Amino acid sequence: MSSNTQIIINQFGDAELLAFQQSEQPQPQAGEVLVKVAFAAVNPIDVKTRAGLGWAAQHNKNNLPWVPGYDVSGSIVKQGAGCLKFNLNDNVSGFIGFPLRAGGYSQYVCVPESELALMPEDISLESAAAIPLAGQTAAQALEKAKIQPKEKILILAGAGGVGHIATQIAVAAKTQVYATCGTDNIDYVTALGATAIDYTQPDWQKNLNDVDVLIDLVGGEQAIDALCCLRPGSRVVTVPTITSSLVCEKANELGLIGMGMLVEPDITQLEELLHLISAGMIKIKIEKIFPYQDVVQAHHKVEQGHARGKILLNMQA
């Protein structure tokens, strides 16, 4: 039987603790398909969980070794009993096993077919791996904020994995988008249709006011500092869960409506996002693809921040 290489967390801590394990290729159960994984995305939640932080780490601390990874693209190579949604060799994209099972950092993984979407033929496997978690986080944050045309929207980290998608969706919704980014990403964020704000400039917040919605993709003190840009009654959606209560509490003190969120996998929404990519309405930026053997460097890249778009692992490299 063919072997299956997986990247595992044996113990929580630094990226250097990530390890590899060899196992037999898994066999799909009823309702599952076996996916040969082409690419897996590296998301901030992977880094946080590996470090032992957050909900997934707490619930898996007695379940190690654990295979991280929620975003995959690849092809169907085997079907379990009762599987009718796909054909063999279909290319699929998935936001899998969230938040406890995960498993995407694998060369082969069994997935309930209900967690997978058929890829349009004209998009790449790379884009299909980059969109699930980040795209749905962006879409759901904007939905939660109930953005309206002509409103002023401020997005923190507008060039990042979630941010560059949120920026494009908000621009398409005919809002007036302001997005923070580093100096190197000013032109990129401007090209997405937003007014780029260089967050490295001191007191940048003083030049922006009467914002209707803040989409916080950074958290902590940076999010709290940005609250001064909002008018009373404005909505704040903060995504980083570790500082969510802190940001919401401060927002509410200032007469704002603070809301945390946890993304929820939604296969219909994923299918819609894939078709928006196919139609050219969302352009996915991938900063770097690492061979899976370089997962430590990939995690460091995500930890450092400042990535333009997404970081992927090539699981068949």
UniProtKB/TrEMBL annotation:
Transmembrane segments: none annotated. Coiled coil: none annotated. GO terms for molecular function: oxidoreductase activity. It comes from the Bacteria. InterPro entries: ADH-like_N, ER, GroES-like_sf, Lipid_raft_assoc_Zn_ADH, NAD(P)-bd_dom_sf. Residues 13-313 form the Enoyl reductase (ER) domain. Gene3D superfamilies: Medium-chain alcohol dehydrogenases, catalytic domain, NAD(P)-binding Rossmann-like Domain. Pfam families: ADH_N, ADH_zinc_N_2. This is Zinc-binding dehydrogenase.
